[in-house]
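Q: SET domain-containing protein, please. Structure only.
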Amino acid sequence: MEIVSQVSFTQVFEAAGGFVGPHVCLCVPAGCERGVFIHKLRVSTVAPVSEPDAMPLVYIPASLVLTAAEAAKSEVVCRCCDKLPDTDASESVVLALFLLTERARGADSPWEWYINALPCVGTNALYFENADIAALQGTPLGSAAEAKLRQLKRQYGCFAETLDCWQCSQNLELTLSFEDYKWASFIVLSRSISLHSCDESVVDCDSNGYPHGRCDRALIPFLDMFNHCARPNAYWTVNSNGSVSIHAAAASTERSDINSDQPSSIELCLSYGAKPATEWAYEYGFLPLDNRHDAWPHFVQLAGSPSLVAIKRMWIQELGLSPRVMLVDPAATMPIHSSDRGYLSRSALLMLCLAALDDLSDKCTHAVGKILPAMPYFSVGGAIVDDDEKLLQLPGLATFARHKCSSQLSAQAFNMRASSYHTSPKPNPLVLAYLETQSSLVDRIADYLTDHLI
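A: Structure for SET domain-containing protein:
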């Protein structure tokens, strides 16, 4: 187990006001990624978070919590943000620009110790190769990766000249390229967190002494060294003064035996939250085992003539509906032999029903009756449908909409499975794993919708 290379990071962290508890250390087990470990003999003596005044495993002072408020103190970051449209100057962009420019400053940056400890090579969706994108065509992961890269390239184009001028004024030898900005964005996407404590409480941003303003995203040295576990043995919380504490918890961890070199140590893990596989692969570049929170983001297509589609768009806007319907894994959420009630939310069923209505389809006409657009409403079988409740009560529509959704999902599952087998050259292991798990998930959802037609 490699410990020596992590010592300097911990020393600088503590010199800057951080605290690392006894027998807690950063280690790199053979064949595994870096993590935070504690000596087993210390585990029973560490107070869980529920105990009052418990000494934390790790304490990060507010001065080391890197937010957009801190990053915006950089003149070059502000100049770059001025070149962006207002909608693009998000907290994540500000943090990425700060990392980009501070990394270029090297030893002149007070954050060099932290930046040097960050991964040098990206592993999430921003680093997919052409073969990966080709295999992911038609999937939400592929679409998200392509959209994010387009956004980053557009943003970089806005401030590239400003960066060039700054580099010349600083006499920097290196040239900051788009790849450097992509790296900084990867770090923010995969390592920044929302400033909410582990129990979902929110610190009052207006309280006296709270230094982070109304910032939400943050990069937090040492906290981002903890790996993920669905059953964590550590939790973090934001304190009223803006500092962050990491405490032990009573729960055991699935990763406790990962360290075969040193059986006297166990790994301390946090939970990164409940996310579907698409988000795990997109943000972090890995898929956790036995994800009980998986879900498929189904993007509905509005069927029908242009006149009917225009009415549907108006309804969607007025009703606050989303064209993305999250379909959870029925195997993880529905009891065996349960009824279907509660699987689809009312808004999800409403979106599926509205999208499925098709005045150009004989199948739809046979299922629900003749459909005629009548802006701002429409008639079905001669009756005007002028509100969402009437739409849901149309005889046969819910069954037709679910059957149509099930057919679309089955086709998506087939295409994903075909991509994993037939794409050449082969995509990377993460993409193959994603296609395999998601094709199985989508098949389960499609079967469930078919088996519970109403």
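A: Brief note, in case it's useful. The chain has three domains: 4-65+195-284, 66-191, 295-451.
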